[in-house]
Design a protein that fits this description.
By secondary structure, this protein is of the alpha+beta class. The chain contains 4 helices and 4 strands; from the N terminus they run ααββββαα. The radius of gyration is 27 Å and the shape is elongated.
Amino acid sequence: MEQELETTRMRIFSNMLTTQKEDLKIAYERREKMKQELLDYNELANTVKIMLENRDVQENGLQTSVNLGCDFYVDSVVKKPETIVVSLGLDLFVEYTLPDALTVVAAKQAVLEHQIDYMTQQIAQIEGFIALSTSSLGSNAQLHPSEFEHLSASSLKNKPTIFDCLQNQLLNQLKQ
């Protein structure tokens, strides 16, 4: 009975560790997507600044290439570049004057920077949890995580179980 309980606890711990590793991968992917979006907004801000500062663009228009789809580009001229359409996310696009577009883009950049910082903190927490889990496993059970299923109750007698240590850590993490 005690051996089955310890084996069950180790399987739960193993599942928690696997879930944390999957969460870490997702967090990295989200952060990279946000970083790319921030780069796109930085490029847009630079383009708008150039359009505002360059009188030649205001008088003669803006020459550009437009993607028609499937990487098929057509050269075009915007005769009076007074407004620009900005993506706000979730397929929502709004037309702004150039000065207003700079304000909106700056606000969006600030939000993205905050989100990137938050994701970096989340990644650090997950990595910390994984490191704590792995070190607890090494100091308490002296086994590699792949060996969880071979644990017996007799090998853990008079030692606090990893599950007990990590359960407390997980509860503290969830309270935050």
